[in-house]
Amino acid sequence: MNQNDKHHDDTHNDVSKTLWHGRFAGGPADELMAYTVSLPFDRRLWRDDIACSRAHVAGLAHVGILTVDERDAVLAALDVVEAEMSADTFVFAAGDEDIHTAVERRVTEICGPPGAKLHTGRSRNDQSVTGLRLWCKREVPLVAARIVALQEVLLDRAREAGVGNDAVYLPGYTHVQRAQPVLLAHHLLAHGWAFGRDIERLLDALERVDVSPLGAGALAGSSLPLDPEFTARELGFARAFDNSLDAVSDRDFVAEILFALSMVAVHLSRIGEEWVLWTSDEFGFAVLDDAYATGSSMLPQKKNADIAELARGKAGRVIGDLTGLLTTLKGLPLAYNRDLQEDKEPLFDAMDQVSLALSALAGMIATARFVPERMRTAADAPTMAATDLAEFLVRAGTPFRDAHAIVGALVRRSLAGEGALVDLVRAEPRLGDDAAALVAPGVGVRMRTTPGGAGPRPVALQIEGFASALQQWKQAIS
Ligand code: ARG
After folding, report:
1. Cβ(335) to ligand 1 under 6 A?
2. What is the CATH number of domain 378-477?
3. Which of 119, 227, 230, 343 is the most exposed place for a label (fewest CB within 10 A)?
């Protein structure tokens, strides 16, 4: 039986034991509880909620609101709760609206009167967002590590594609029209750099996550001598909040992480779209390993790139998580509003979906077989040399605009059936044999010498540069 079943199997006798029923004559309606509970999703914060409570009781004892014995009794009860949660033996009660209520209720059951002091000077408003910040501090580096794992696959495959004489190259595209040949290593690392920016964005967001809201109370702090800096230190936060109203209602950090995750999802989606194309018969640039492809229930011959398609499709969902949260936030007056409870599901969903996509795509790309012959054939189309021919003329002193027109006219004549481009080039007095050599297979990609460009020399340097950047991203995460 999972924890949700336990929750629902309980009788509703306990329901008047919500945290707030002192002020109410009767118990809550079933519909109210069904609609407002957050336990089904915020139970995921149990570790963080326990950490938050440990720091809070330590803080209360630190300023003399709890005795050392009371503090130790609550801490011991929190240890029991932690053990029960870890072993999945914690029994939720019908009145447990959220994980915070559940933990406090159980602590009080276990240790009695000292437990009833746990919530002193604290509100679920500062408590829930403190837990969520702790969760982000733990989970964001994990998703960043999955990004690194995918980058490692891209780097391995880039090295394997090579920069030497037998390096794999393919057409580079603009407007999905063949443009100029590029090394496969260059293409793969283009995605690698984008993921590097994603890691930097996630880590940057963590700097603003690193502020403890604990002590802000419901919205205004407390008349008790709380020490927010003390609890911030206990929890490993860089510092405590500056403004209690802001502290309980700020979800910028969730929005920032959701944006960073949306950007990851968009990058994954773009790779997904490419691999859908690359694995089609029309392109034939890559063949998926059977373990990372799916079949059709009706069409026996089909081998589909469903991982790539879902990486593309689920980006919409993650962007929806971001959009949903921003829409929730946009009309909220200060300070806490129950709407803010809607912060957790989009965050958890985006984190889950992006994590799954990262692992699935990493496996798919690591195990796929590239088809260099197909890539080369596509990249060796004579017209792919057009820019090199124009630049040949530029080196001889022709203004680029004129060179563009001269070569463009040759391409037009060739397409009109007047002859192979290479023959027209040879016959053109301003071009000739040396220029015609540029049309030969495999020559064009070697002409790209610009630092950061697509040819062998810059890509060799880039591979080393990427490898060392990857070490730095890795270090920044750990
Ligand atoms: N479950 C709630 C949340 O996640 C806790 C805060 C409830 N606070 C309140 N005043 N009703 O936001």
Report:
1. no
2. 1.10.40.30
3. 227
Which residue's C-alpha comes closest to atom 5 of ligand 1? 124
Whether 58 contacts 121, CB under 8 Å = no
What does the mean pLDDT of the chain come to?
95
pLDDT at 27: 87
Q: At what angle do helices 124-161 and 184-209 cross, to 10 degrees?
A: 160
**Which residue has tokens 């080196």?**
395
Both tokens assigned to 107 = 């602590």
Q: Mean pLDDT, to the nearest integer, of 67-84? A: 98
Q: How many CB atoms lie within 10 A of CB 449?
A: 11
CATH 1.10.275.10 is the classification of domain 3-120: yes
Q: 10 pLDDT exceeds 80?
A: no
Ligand 1 geometric centre to CA of 13 (Å): 22
What does the DSSP assignment read for 136-199? HHHHHHHHHHHHHHHHHHHHHHHHHH-SSTT--EEEEEETTEEEEEEEHHHHHHHHHHHHHHHH
- Predicted TM-score of the model (pTM): 0.94
Report pLDDT for 17: 64
* Cα separation, 318 vs 60, whole angstroms: 40
What's the 220 CA to ligand 1 centre distance in angstroms? 16
> Could you tell me the CA-to-CA distances from 428 to 224, 326, 400, 475 in Å, in that order?
90, 61, 17, 57
Ligand 1 within 6 A of 130 CB? Answer: no
Q: Give the angle 267-272-277 at the CA atoms, nearest 5°.
A: 130
CA of 71 from ligand 1 middle (Å) equals 25
CATH topology of domain 126-160+183-224+238-368: Fumarase C; Chain A, domain 2 (1.20.200)
For the chain, the structural domain boundaries read 3-120, 126-160+183-224+238-368, 378-477
Pairwise CA distance, residues 422 & 439, whole Å: 6
* pLDDT tens figures, 216-234: 999 999 999 999 999 999 9
pLDDT of residue 208: 98
User: Do the beta carbons of residue 298 and residue 328 sit within 8 Å?
Assistant: no
User: Among the atoms of ligand 1, which is closest to the Cα of residue 20?
Assistant: 11
Minimum-distance ligand 1 atom for the alpha carbon of 340:
12
Tell me the residue type at 155.
Answer: L
Confidence of residue 16 (pLDDT cuts 50, 70, 90): low
